[in-house]
Amino acid sequence: MAMSSFAREIDAVLDAAEGKKTEELLITYKGVLYPSTLCCAETFQALDTMEVRKDDVFLAAYPKCGTNWIEHILNDLTSAVLRKEVPRIKHLQILEFGVPEKFQKIKSLPSPRLFTTHLHYDNIPKAVLGSNAKVLVLLRNPKDAAVSYYHFYNKNPGLPNVSSWDEFFQKFMSGEVCWSSYFDYALAWNKHMDKENIMIITYEEMKENLPQGVKQIAEFLGFSLPEEKIQSIAENATFESMSNKSQETHGKFGPILFRKGTVGDWKNLFTEAQSQEMDAKFEECLAGTKLGARLKYDKYCKY
Ligand SMILES: Nc1ncnc2c1ncn2[C@@H]1O[C@H](COP(=O)(O)OS(=O)(=O)O)[C@@H](OP(=O)(O)O)[C@H]1O
Ligand 1 centre from 203 Cα, in Å? Predict the structure, then answer.
């Protein structure tokens, strides 16, 4: 099976990580950890002056909340509207990845350009947040996000191994993970989610009704597509469909990324005490907020 250029690009990043010592795998920029195989200070600086078009589309997602899933749907929706395949170029499309010279190439990409970022609201370029470009914000319940992140730390050669789930749980709770704290991330978006050009989606809602989720995203983007097209995009975006093609689309990264794709896997790792600790943190940070309600914590994070 032929590998996409995107898959070859990811394989090259994984190969580069294999040669690095553990202490070389992370960098810190403005107090936040990032993987050194993908991010550098020069690109963060260049991001500050990135030019934004009003028809650019941004996907903002905390890591492990289903970023690659929604990217795939956005790509399919855009390809359907343009009636041609939109190529994916990860180091260009993920705002904080790659080298600063990429911004020259970004300027020549045709509209509508699709970008992704895991950056905290405060670190997203002001040009993006000050524009009317559409921003789709993706979150997942924090317990499943933590479990997914834990496996990712240990399976991805680009991240340092953690010796145990207990160790990772404490790091996740204190925000000592790449892209920093889940709770700070969600709280920041809570303040901005009512803006017209911002739409929140959750992993769990997409799992509950994928065609409905695809339709809502299309409507938010102003894309008018026949029902059958929405259905076929949803069918291509199931976990089974995406993981079956992952070797082709994501190369060696495929099995690392498409792990389980379920809701509730946290019950296999969380101890009772850890579950209560996260319940208390959620209560302290997000309970009573509009975004907190959207996450349906009691449904997805309680026994
Ligand atoms: N199509 C589809 N349906 C349901 N779930 C899916 C799908 N595609 C990816 N996934 C799951 O999303 C998790 C990876 O999240 P991200 O893509 O955000 O990871 S990353 O931060 O970009 O590395 C990871 O979750 P876990 O399986 O729980 O680890 C993936 O399996």
Answer: 9
135 residue type, one letter: V
CA distance 104 to 110: 13
Q: What is the 256 CA–ligand 1 centroid distance (Å)? A: 10
- Which protein residue has the closest C-alpha to ligand 1 atom 19? 64
- Which H or E element spans position 79? helix 67-82
Burial of 8 (0-12, 13-18, 19+ CB in 10 A): exposed
pTM more than 0.95: yes
**Catalytic residue from among 118, 120, 151, 192:** 118
C-alpha–C-alpha distance, residues 88 and 6, integer Å: 6
Q: Is there an atom of ligand 1 within 6 Å of 143 CB?
A: no
* Alpha carbon distance 217, 291 (integer Å): 18
Q: How far is CA 200 from CA 239, 252, 271, in A?
A: 21, 31, 30
Task: Confirm or reject: Cβ of 245 under 6 Å from ligand 1.
Answer: no
Distance from chain centroid for Cα 221 = 18
pLDDT tens figures, 18-71: 878 888 999 999 999 999 999 999 999 999 999 999 999 999 999 999 999 999
